From TrEMBL:
Its main location: membrane. Belongs to the ABC-4 integral membrane protein family. It comes from Bifidobacterium catulorum. Keywords: Cell membrane, Membrane, Transmembrane, Transmembrane helix. GO terms for cellular component: plasma membrane. It is found in: Cell membrane. This is ABC transporter permease. Residues 277-395, 765-882 form the ABC3 transporter permease C-terminal domain.
Length: 889
């Protein structure tokens, strides 16, 4: 029987190809996901142990001890190099090298050039260095340094030149001879972009101690040689020398512990997340496979009946269909694993991951081969069960009947009842969760107060039930929706009328194909709607809490940097102003830390502030204060409409009156008349930001301790994006680490960048399922062409042209794609709105947008892909002459 099955597969090979492609794509995704997880795990291990160099053991805290208190931690972090007895460690048999990890940050000077330097200790053995020495040698004597190559370029020095090193902890500057250049090939210090190496005396000086043995150290790296037994003896000896609560452990053990700490248990979370999309892709593929086997069994009905007449039993036919499915799944899954391997090999070989700081390698294990193949075979067999059951219902007498491929079975009552229960339950859960959230936003008692996660899970579960209910019931509503759309399309001509008639012949297959596309489009639309709602809601929330679009502040801000930022495209107005941090007391005696900003006047302030300042004037002797605190919203009330400004670092003497000289020196109080306006937060760091006339700074009444730049942004008018404006302003201050850019536009740009990145990743993952669904559309059309060979021949014989036949198939594909896509967009938008309401109601008034761009692009791509999917079936339909087709039929 199995040999007969293989011969039948060969005859139907063309029909099996689309189903095989769906399996290949799904299993390739799963294999690539597992390979990605392996590569990421490997990369994290290498990154977390990059500081080892070639060392195979490290010395550090005994992390297995869980009872460490504050005194213990003080003890651990106060250890110095001499506490580890380095000479005794080097003398232990089997120890080939030792390097202590000490760090220092310094400023290097060469003439008029300056550069920040991050440095670590050197080692006599080059293999123990955490960075690569690209030129010269590592420091081996007093006063020697190997500079990071980028630092050397910034200073304009070469090997052999002298530089000056200074640090906050050093008692004096040190001269250093540059003996080499380094590069961080292993990514040991990615935050700093690499590291320089310092000789022991320089490291001690930069740490403010006289001897290297007094430098604080908690980590050391060892190169231990020997067989396993000898290494164990060496490690035991080392542990006896070490200070208490320190231990030596292998590099492999440390890497596993570090990765587990970083990722919460290897990369299982990331891999599981990605595998969820792989399972989704295989679910969609199962719908394509089920369609294929339904048609195969229908086409072979006469053959199966003949087999029954010669003695084949029901069990044999059942096993034949399952064997065919298993063989198809096996072959396609093996090809899918091969494709996944090729894709990941190409990605790792291309160096694309190196650009994001993760140089990945191809890491194979048994899961990469076993899991996708097993999943592919099992899913294919499960998808064919219904068809196998249909095959067993064929009777010997059916060999004498004409073959009828149109769907005649009625949809079961159980399916209808199950889908109705799912829909009712899901809608009830969604409605209850939304009701509880509405009560919470209205200030009423609700479950959200104490059980927000439960309400959120209820909403997600409700959406899932509604989604499953619609998929299960697709056989009811999707053919009817297609019938309505087809009736409208049939007005376009004979090709459209034929397409409308053909699409109604097999509602089950149409429903399965449409459901496959519905799944992908719904998920894409849900993510796009949620992202759009999140960006709009957070934008509105931020705008309602700030009165200035963007603020840059810092001690080392200069007029030149501010002028550069003011010229950024999208910055329509700006103020560069001096600031002073002062204390203000309200009528209750509460001290309010206030940032006082000097401006030319209220008219200048109106150019950058989104607030109604009325007829307020900012002159000598007045100060503009907000009505409410930016933190708690509490009203500010000041005694007699006056405030006394005192430098935040100085507490005013009770009852004392500051002299003019004291005020000018920043040591006393300055009393001003208060003018209040209803403006919102200006800086997130202060409860109040007040504005005074700039003359108080120029005359010396207030001592400038910083500067601030206030900006009004109009990205749309300038024809740019918020993110570009934010990036441009940041670039203007890039040469100063002390300047921060904040405000609603800055926060909104950061939010939008993060949301867009997440949306792009998720949509990219879901695109795999959409691709498989479109393969299903092509599969449905191909099977339809095979079924309608006689019909197509008859139409050709009575005068239908090849172009009309092609158009009928194109319209059929277009109807499938657009009706399923529109249903998916509607459903996804609803899910996205509910999800946004459940999440973003906590931050402000939720905006419910419709993402025309993404949804329109999704429908357009689905329609275009459907048209392309109709090309091959149409070519097959028109290439056979009518007479030959009628003879074959």
């Amino acid at each position: 029987m199995f040999s007969i099955t293989i011969r039948m597969m060969k005859r139907s090979a063309r029909m099996l190809v689309p189903a095989g492609i769906a399996i290949v794509i799904g299993t390739a995704f799963i294999a690539a996901t597992l390979l990605f997880g392996n590569a990421m795990n490997d990369t994290l291990k290498r990154m977390t142990t990059a500081q080892y160099g070639d060392a195979n053991y490290s010395i550090g805290f005994d992390t297995s001890i869980a009872d460490a208190d504050d005194a213990d931690m003080d003890y651990l972090y106060s250890r110095t190099v001499s506490d580890f007895h380095p000479e005794r460690l080097r003398a232990v048999e089997g120890v080939k090298g030792l390097r202590f990890e000490a760090r220092a940050e310094a400023v290097a000077t060469n003439g008029d050039s300056h550069a920040n330097v991050f440095a670590v200790t050197t080692a006599s053995e080059r293999g123990l260095l955490p960075v690569t020495v690209t030129q010269g040698a590592q420091p081996s004597g007093d006063g020697q340094a190997a500079l990071q190559d980028s630092t050397a370029k910034q200073l304009g020095v070469r090997v052999g030149d002298d530089i000056t090193l200074a640090s906050k902890g050093a008692s004096h500057d040190m001269r250093a001879r540059v003996v080499g250049l380094t590069r961080d090939d292993a990514g040991a210090y990615p935050y700093y972009g690499g590291a320089s190496l310092l000789s022991d005396d320089l490291m001690a000086a930069m740490n403010g101690v006289s001897d290297f043995g007094r430098v604080n150290a908690t980590t050391a790296y060892l190169d231990i040689d020997g067989d396993p037994a000898a290494v164990k003896t060496t490690v035991d000896t080392i542990n006896r020398i070490l200070p208490k609560r320190f231990t030596a452990q292998s590099r492999d053990k440390a890497a596993k512990a570090a990765v587990k700490s970083l990722s919460g248990g290897d990369t299982d979370i990331v891999t599981t997340f990605l595998l969820g999309f792989g399972a989704l892709a295989m679910l969609v593929a199962a719908l394509v496979i089920a369609n294929t086997f339904q048609v195969l069994v229908a086409q072979r009905r006469r053959t199966l009946a003949l087999l029954r007449t010669i003695g084949a039993g029901k069990g044999q036919l059942y096993a034949s269909v399952l064997f065919e499915a298993g063989l198809l799944g096996l072959v396609a899954s093996v090809l899918g694993v091969g494709l996944g391997l090729a894709l990941m090999a190409a990605v790792t070989a291309s160096g694309l991951t190196s650009s994001i700081g993760m140089a990945m390698r191809l890491v194979l294990d048994w899961r990469v081969f076993v899991v996708p193949i097993a999943f592919g075979v099992v899913m294919t067999v499960i998808a064919s069960l219904s068809s196998a059951r249909t095959a067993t219902s064929v009777t010997p007498l059916e060999a004498l009947r004409p073959m009828e491929l149109s769907e005649t079975r009625r949809t079961g009552v159980v399916r209808g009842a199950l889908s109705a229960l799912m829909l009712a339950g899901g809608l009830a859960m969604c409605a209850y969760a939304a009701w509880q959230m509405s009560r919470n936003t209205a200030g009423q008692a609700s479950m959200v107060d104490d059980h927000y996660s439960t309400v959120l899970v209820m909403a997600v579960g409700g959406c899932a039930l509604v989604f499953l209910g619609l998929i299960v019931s697709a056989v009811y509503w999707l053919p009817r929706a297609l019938h309505g759309a087809g009736a409208f399309a049939s007005l376009a001509g004979p090709s459209a009328r034929i397409a409308h008639a053909n699409i109604q012949k097999n509602p089950r297959r149409v429903a399965a194909t449409g459901a496959a596309l519905l799944i992908g489009v719904t998920l894409v639309s849900t993510i796009a709607t949620g992202a759009a709602s999140g960006k709009a809601t957070m934008g509105e929330a931020l705008a309602s809490r700030y009165s200035v679009d963007m603020i840059a502040s810092g001690d080392d801000m200069t007029d030149a940097r501010a002028s550069k930022a003011a010229k950024v495209k999208g910055v329509t107005a700006s103020i560069y102003a001096p600031t002073a941090t002062m204390n203000v007391k309200d009528t209750h005696g509460t001290t309010i830390t206030t940032l006082v900003v000097g401006v030319d006047g209220a008219d200048t302030l109106r150019k950058v502030m989104h607030a109604d300042l009325g007829d307020t004037a900012i002159g000598n002797g007045t100060i503009l204060m907000p009505h409410r605190s930016a933190f708690g919203g509490k009203d500010f009330v000041f005694r007699n409409g006056r405030v006394e400004l005192t430098p935040a670092s100085v507490s005013p003497a009770s009852g004392d009156t500051a002299t003019s000289d004291d005020a000018r020196d920043g040591k006393g109080a300055l009393t001003l008349d208060v003018r209040q306006a209803d403006y919102r937060r200006v800086s997130a760091d202060y409860a109040a930001v007040a504005f005074v006339n700039i003359r108080h700074f120029t005359d010396g009444d207030l001592k400038t301790d910083g500067h601030m730049m206030l900006m009004r942004i109009d990205a749309d008018k300038a024809g740019t994006t918020l993110n570009d404006v934010f990036t441009g302003v940041q670039s203007a201050f890039a040469d100063s680490a002390g300047i921060t850019v904040t405000g609603p536009i800055a926060e909104r740009a950061q939010w939008e960048t993060m949301i867009d990145a997440m949306m792009a990743m998720l949509v990219g993952l879901i695109a795999v399922a959409v691709l498989i669904a479109l393969v299903g559309v092509a599969n449905t059309l191909s099977l339809s062409v095979i079924e309608r060979t006689r019909e197509s021949a008859t139409l050709r014989a009575i005068g239908m042209t090849r172009g009309q036949l092609r158009r009928s198939l194109a319209i059929e594909a277009l109807l499938l794609a657009l009706v399923s896509g529109l249903a998916g967009v509607a459903l996804g938008t609803g899910f996205g709105w509910l999800g946004s309401y459940m999440v973003f109601s906590l931050y402000g008034t939720v905006v419910f947008p419709f993402d025309w761009a993404v949804n329109g692009a999704t429908l357009g791509i689905a329609a275009l892909a459907a048209l392309l999917a109709s090309v091959a079936p149409a070519r097959r339909a028109v290439k056979t002459p009518p007479v030959e087709a009628l003879a074959e039929a």
